[in-house]
Fold this protein.
Amino acid sequence: MTAAIPVLAALAALALVKTLERRLAPVVVRAAIAVFVVGPLIGVGYAMWALWQRALAPVDLVLLVTFSVITGLGTSLGYHRLLTHRSFRTKPWIAGAALAAGAMAVPSRPIDWAARHLEHHAHADRDGDPHSPVDGLLHAHVGWIFSVSPAKRERYCRRLMDDPVVMAIERTSVLWLALGLAVPALIDGWRGLLWGGIVRIAIHNHSMFAVNSICHAFGSQPFATGDESRNNRLIAVLAFGEGWHNNHHAFPAAAYHGMGSGPDVTGLVIRGLERTGLAWDVRRPHPAAVERRRRLPVRGVPAAGTPRSR
């Protein structure tokens, strides 16, 4: 447990820097982001060495899987489908739990996350898109984070600033991130922090980053969306259904991204909540609209592959 204390302190400090990024010099924020991106990858390397040395207990695998599911659903169900796209409605305590789980996953406040994602949809693969492979696959995957550009909260997410549940998680987001690291450390010390915290963060980071990069470069495009969004089954499995990205760009508010294409864990959870009466107003595209979108190009939007103006 002693070895875990400095790591927890460092990660908490990095999260605090990211939360206060508007008040700090860009070089400080970029340095913190670099550590948060590279640090978990170093942790994965150490974890592989520890695994080779058989320094792994069953509880560590349980922590890895449990916290991966909690934080993965927090991002996909909480931050993305519930908060950003309002794909369904639910009870305040479920919304709060989902957003808290999302805050455990990433050092980004929920409103900032939603604003950047809506900005991506507004300018997908054109000027103004914060992360597009048109600017390079590495830029789309992780490079865009280092731009340290403030999220356009007022433009895209004014409605969220009046929501008491959202603002409660907004104000405590750093604490939730720290809790997601502290709990596995308290359960199994350094090994718990390594597998339930650091390795879990690395897996989550790059699974979700891949939606921005891989899913705009490799995969199928059943719908004409006017951008490079694609469906990728592997990323769909790793990112709780977020890999059905072309489906999502065709129908951003749809609660089920899989749309019959394949695995969508988040969609299944929403369906379960709906059947138990804990979710309602679940948004689904009309079958006729789906078929029409498969055939018709998007008017007024450059076709996929069209170079962006500079």
